[in-house]
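FORM 7B: Structural annotation worksheet

SECTION A. Query
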Amino acid sequence: MNNLTDPNYLKSFLKRSGLKPRHYLGQNFLVDESVLAKIVTTAQLKKSDTVLEVGPGIGTLTVELLKRAGKVIAVEKDERMMQVLRGTFGGSAAGIGERLALSGRTTPPNDDTRSADDQRLTVIHQDILKFNLGQYIQGPYKVVANIPYYLTSHLIRYFLGQKNKPRLLVLMVQKEVGERVVAKPGKLSILGISVQAFADAEIVQRRSISPSPRRGILPPAHPRHWIRRVDGDGFGNEQLPFIVPKTSFWPQPEVDSVIIKITPKEKYPEIADHKLFFSIVKQAFAGKRKQIKNTIRNSEALKAAGIDPKARPQDLSIEDWIKLYQAIRL
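SECTION B. Predicted structure
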């Protein structure tokens, strides 16, 4: 068991360290072992993987990542948490039994004579949005993190905008935000478009269950993670989103969470000018509830794209936005 997920141990640990969670930094610590396991299994880590963790906090997720990945780079903004991480990982990683290296540097050391085992973990004190990714990672990597809610949209755009994009992002986010990321036409937002235009995105499911005549009866295991609304997977099975209740954290946030899985892909190479594309999207969403003809005052472009002038921005598909972009760009 990861002791850091035990609420009593966590509170005692923080008290001994002289720490209190900072609300403005979104510091809600995960105290649910099953959720922790779900995050790690979703990332499908191998010993050859390099993982970038954002906001490791006291190291709850970091411990599990180190058990499975070959290298972990953790970026922490809070200096107080840096001190805790040094205490947690300075000798051995909570029972892992391997010496680990920590760094408070903002640039890589020029003369690194540490052993291979010592280099499995690097902790960097920095704001992730100011992080120079290329200084630390040149090859493939994955992003796995339980991130502060306020950071979600900025963080996703940061990584999808990198030249060296992650192979995979597994993030725990506010449920409402997760739903916006994977939304379909009718509920699409700027966030959903900015993700789905450059990646495949999904909310992690608990599992599929085959159709049953006794619909409405859910398996008893971990009922707090079920949600009554289900979706099909196209094969006659039902998909059950894995909901992370607010009781899975201490202190408790005001909302539930979900785990999202984002796989960056070159989906639409026709979007050659990203700046123009998103300027069109933002212009249209300036009047979200308005008909698109009232914000995109280019009737010829709307006609060329085959878009109903009375449609609302959230009703358009990604393909519709690309057609509109192409029509305006001509």
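SECTION C. Observations
The CA atoms of residues 102 and 231 lie 44 Å apart. The chain has two domains: 3-204+242-264, 274-329.

SECTION D. Sign-off
Analyst initials: ____
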